[in-house]
Specification:
The protein is an alpha+beta fold and 479 residues long. It has 2 domains: 53-178 and 224-234, MM3350-like (Structural Genomics Hypothetical 15.5 Kd Protein In mrcA-pckA Intergenic Region, Chain A, Roll), CATH 3.10.290.30; 247-479, no CATH class. The chain is 41% helix and 12% strand. It has helices spanning 3-13, 17-28, 79-90, 114-118, 185-197, 211-217, 229-240, 248-259, 264-268, 282-288, 290-299, 313-323, 340-351, 366-372, 375-385, 392-406, 414-424, 443-452, 465-476; strands spanning 53-60, 68-74, 98-101, 141-146, 152-162, 170-175, 303-304, 355-358, 361-364, 429-431, 434-436. Strand 10 and strand 11 form a beta hairpin. The longest helix has 15 residues, at 392-406. The model is unreliable at 25-38 (pLDDT under 50).
Length: 479
């Protein structure tokens, strides 16, 4: 794709649904320039001396049955912060571009998002405008467009003014779960909602994936009629909280996302779990490091590797049996190159400096020998070596894994959240001409899986408190 093609694609992605429709209409009329005019300057009032308290109703346009939220918030909230409130309230993941504007015509008045500002667009930055500069009286409206591909258009209406502005945004009530991201706009959402209300009957699957894949793709527990104001308010409280202080490479990544207005990483670091422990007991350290200590014990004074550099078949079988891997691994357990869970333990043990190859043998290092009988010492050493990886993607993925685990998210949510964060950081995977989301996997995530005993992904459920403390210990360490 040429640079001019890239510019055209970016321009089209930055248009709202109305702008796209107007542009297409003009192209069909053989009038490519015609009356497609730039957006007008938005209008707004000076900030009031005292912030207004606003009760707002937010509706997702064209959703049937109506999908809406009632919010109470302070008018001194900047529009860029209001964007994040709307993302949380409506259940979005802030994975696409957005725009606030003041009308529905093709010359509507809009404000620039952080991404548009970073691209050098000229106009009024949403980060400089307060909510009570554009919404000042009952009946006032503001429009919010999100994801210019799927075209999620919202209308925000002032229902009433409050006697006092609330300290933090608050969701009073609402109706319906937000649509899944990238589901195809209102038509795709409607088809998914009908399928869900019918009990996810495979015969009625709207596609495009097979029914089982569709269920895996949907957010966990998603149902179009589910809504919890309590859950929204918990998320809004995290949005209002201060994130834990980080340093080094992780701080640089957080600053990079803040610069473009993406707050997912920041909000993970603001979760209450970061006020939890970052140390483990001797018993917890023994449980966490059990698989690695077993490997070190079985290697003992050293193991002669095969000519290809692998662990010998007998060793692989014995370790797979003793570690429990053979109980869930479907394949044979007599070759390391075909028993990837065993290979993962050995490879990460090398990366952690617990074992080393010397003259065709795998031997335990000095730190490994100290850790065999001292789980706490071994745990501290592992913490000191994370994240693993020399390649930039490996380290970025490792940091995201540590944040996700340390924030207390249940294990079944790790992969999609890590993928989303890597996508925001600009990573992608290319297979020929196909571009897809980056994989969540990294050597660091593998270590966390081994420590938590969840190499078998079917065991990935819930929160391991000791593992979360381990991740927090890494993140809180001076960078």
């Amino acid at each position: 794709m040429t640079s001019s093609d890239d510019r055209i694609r970016q321009l089209v992605e930055s248009l709202s649904a109305d702008e796209k429709m107007n542009l297409v209409a003009q192209l069909l009329d053989d009038d490519p320039v015609g009356s497609f005019t730039p957006q007008a300057e938005p209008t707004y009032s000076p900030p009031p001396e005292q912030p207004l308290g606003l009760r707002l109703r937010v509706d997702l346009r064209d959703a049937s049955p109506p999908l809406w939220r009632r919010l109470e918030l302070s008018g001194d909230l900047m529009l860029d912060d209001f964007h994040h409130v709307l993302q949380i309230a409506m259940g979005w993941t802030d994975s696409h571009l957005h725009r606030f504007h003041q009308g529905r015509a093709n010359d509507f008045a809009g404000f620039l998002s952080a991404w548009e500002v970073s691209e050098g667009e000229q106009g009024i930055d949403e980060a400089t405008i307060r909510l009570d500069q554009v919404l000042t009286a009952p009946g006032d409206k503001l429009y919010y467009d999100y994801d210019f591909g799927d075209g999620w258009d919202h209308v925000v209406v002032v229902e009433s003014l409050l006697d006092e502005p609330p300290e933090v945004p608050f969701c009073v009530t609402g109706r319906g779960a937000g649509p899944p991201e990238d589901c195809g706009g209102i038509p795709g959402y409607t088809a998914l909602a009908e399928w869900a209300r019918g009990g996810f009957d495979p015969a009625a699957n709207p596609g495009p994936l097979e029914a089982g894949e569709m269920l895996e793709w949907l957010p966990p527990g998603w149902h179009p009629d589910a809504f919890s104001a309590e859950e929204v308010n918990e998320a809004l409280a995290i949005e209002a909280a201060e994130p834990v202080e980080v340093s080094g490479e992780l701080a640089e990544l957080a600053a990079e996302l803040d610069r473009i207005g993406a707050r997912q990483l920041r909000n993970l670091l603001a979760r209450p779990d970061w006020h939890g422990p970052d140390e483990v007991s001797a018993e917890e350290a023994a449980a966490l490091t059990g698989t690695y200590r077993l490997l070190l014990e079985q290697i003992g004074s050293g193991v002669k590797l095969t000519a290809a550099g692998y662990l010998p078949p007998r060793f692989v079988g014995q370790f797979a049996s003793a570690s429990g891997i053979s109980q869930w691994w479907n394949g044979m357990t007599n070759r390391e190159d075909r028993t990837f869970p065993v290979a993962e333990v050995r490879e990460t043990a090398q990366a952690l400096g617990l074992v080393a190859k010397r003259h065709g043998r795998l031997e335990v290092t000095a730190v490994g020998r100290r850790g065999v009988d001292d789980p706490v010492t071994l745990w501290r050493h592992i913490v000191s070596r994370l994240p693993l990886g020399r390649a930039e993607l490996e380290r970025h993925a490792g940091w995201m894994a540590l944040v996700v685990v340390g924030s207390g998210l249940p294990a079944e949510e790790w992969n999609p959240v890590i993928q989303s964060l890597l996508d925001l950081l600009g990573w992608e995977t290319t297979y020929g001409n196909i571009i897809s989301d980056p994989p969540p996997h990294s050597p660091t995530l593998t270590v966390l899986e081994i420590l938590g005993g969840v190499q078998n992904h079917r065991d990935r459920v819930g929160v391991n408190a000791a593992l979360a403390a381990t991740a927090r210990s890494v993140v809180r360490s001076p960078g």
